[in-house]
Write a structure and sequence with these properties.
Elements lengths: L1 E9 L2 H21 L3 E9 L2 E11 L2 H8 L2 H10 L3 E10 L9
Antiparallel strand pairs: 1-3, 1-4, 2-3
Organism: Streptomonospora alba
InterPro entries: ABM_dom, Dimeric_a/b-barrel
GO molecular function, one term: monooxygenase activity
């Protein structure tokens, strides 16, 4: 399995609304068309209204690469910048897990 964690810090409340709408538009397409995407979880952060945290888990690196090439993901990646103050990405190697297998 291959994973990543992404922390987005949004510019302001208007940006948060726009970003959340973009996510709401993109996520159903990920669910419907990406069998190699095992988990794509979007979180708000308690007491930090301008932060969003994504946890993504893929069957393998090839599934992640396929995810990145999807038109809906490319659109998300192109559009998200207008809402962001910063982004931090950590690529993860799963050592052990409960509940998700590839």
């Amino acid at each position: 399995m291959f994973g990543l964690a992404v922390r987005f810090t949004l510019k302001d409340e208007d940006s948060a609304s726009g970003f959340d709408a973009l996510v709401a538009e993109t996520l159903p397409q990920i669910r419907e068309s990406e069998p190699g995407t095992l988990v794509y979880a979007v979180h708000t952060v308690e007491e930090k209204p301008l932060e969003r945290y994504f946890y993504e888990l893929y069957r393998d690196r090839a599934a992640f690469d396929a995810h990145e090439q999807q038109p809906h993901v490319k659109r998300f990646l192109d559009a998200r910048g207008q809402y962001l103050a910063s982004v931090e990405v950590d690529f993860l190697t799963v050592q052990d897990a409960k509940g998700v297998t590839g």
